[in-house]
Amino acid sequence: MPRPPLAIAAEIGAFGSEREIVLDEKTHRILLKVATDDLAVAIGRKGQNARLTSRLIGWRLDIEEFKAVGADPEGDAKRKLVAALGIPEPQALRLVKAGFVSLELFEGVEAADLEGAGFTPEEASDIISRVSARAK
Length: 136
Prior knowledge:
By secondary structure, the chain is an alpha+beta fold. 51% of the residues lie in helices and 13% in strands. The relative contact order is 0.10.
């Protein structure tokens, strides 16, 4: 008698906290993605842990490295500049790509510096005035 997927997930849950479990009930296969640090333990010496777990639960078990969706530092910086300065997203993205990822980095920056980074004189003046207004 096949085991319910929740029981299977509970049994293989010991492979660490950072994981993803994909169940295919039709083919009785499980794809277990575990953190890099837990990969060796999950697989075991010469695959012994994986084989024993597979026999125990009665399903085929495939184990891979879990790749967490990382943070988006560029997107985060862009959103913060949009919120802080009230500028359009494309303009904030241009600032981030020019290295201005936070308001603190504008200290000592003049409009001419932004013009050198590809901003028009109007854009540069507007950005500097918005940064100055935030600093007060």
